[in-house]
Write a structure and sequence with these properties.
Elements (H helix, E strand, L loop, with lengths): L8 E4 L10 E4 L2 H8 L1 H9 L13 E2 L13 E7 L7 H14 E11 L2 H16 L9 H14 L5 H4 L10 H10 L2 E6 L19 E7 L1
Parallel strand pairs: 1-2, 1-4, 2-3, 4-5
Antiparallel strand pairs: 5-7, 6-7
Helix pairs in contact: 1-2, 4-5
Length: about 220
């Protein structure tokens, strides 16, 4: 039986989360390096330039900006944790549409991304708290820390060997992500809760409780 015909559940952008009964897919530079050039990956680790990795030849390496190499109506479930924000908006919409295409009728797409509504609301609250104080009593300490978190952890722009060149290219909120799912043909689209899903074993792949949106293929 062809390997692609055996695929039932896709874990896109798997990172270190790699359950054996899912097809674990990644397209990051580190995954490519560890899978295609393991000797170089090992050499860079020994030189202290990069850390250890759980990537290797067991991971399916795909360019997720292109069409998915699966038959239409062939996949039961797709999960993607902290992946959509790594694509420009149009590329993320293309990937969403591809997921809708390959899912069987009733199949589920579930995506988790940083919730920028929450991040920016917190920023505005911190600013308003300080503005409500007399000028001589104000402090920017918490505001600076929050902005630093955003640029360090959310809007990432890091050196090649520090993150293998990965960056976040878009910010999502509930309105944007649900609209994208619906526009791409998914039904019953709604914001989800951590580990509560139409995907029975979602706990095997879901590690973050951020903005979660789930939809069903028609």
């Amino acid at each position: 039986m062809d390997k692609l015909s055996e695929v039932k559940k896709l874990n896109l952008g798997c990172g270190p989360v790699q359950p054996e009964d899912w097809t674990n897919v990644d397209g990051s530079n580190r995954a490519k390096l560890a899978s295609k050039l393991p000797w170089l990956d090992s050499l860079l680790q020994k030189a202290g330039l990069i850390g250890e990795t759980e990537f290797g030849p067991h991971i399916d390496i795909l360019d997720l900006s292109k069409d998915l190499p699966y038959e239409s109506n062939s996949i039961d479930a797709i999960y993607a944790g902290e992946l959509w924000e790594h694509f420009e908006y149009e590329k993320a919409e293309h990937l969403t549409r591809e997921c809708a295409r390959v899912l069987k009728p009733g199949g589920v797409l579930r995506v988790c991304v940083p919730d920028c509504e929450e991040i920016w609301n917190t920023y505005l609250e911190l600013v308003q708290q300080e503005k409500a104080k007399p000028a001589e009593q104000r402090s920017d300490e918490k505001i600076v820390a929050h902005v630093k978190m955003y640029f360090d952890d959310i809007c990432t722009r890091r050196i090649w060997l520090g993150s293998m060149g990965h960056t976040h290219k878009w910010n999502y909120d509930e309105v944007q992500l649900i609209s994208m799912f619906q526009r791409c043909g998914l039904n019953d689209v709604e914001r989800g809760k951590f580990h509560q899903s139409r995907i029975e074993d979602v706990q095997k792949v879901e590690r973050s409780d951020f903005l979660i949106v789930e939809g069903v293929a028609g």
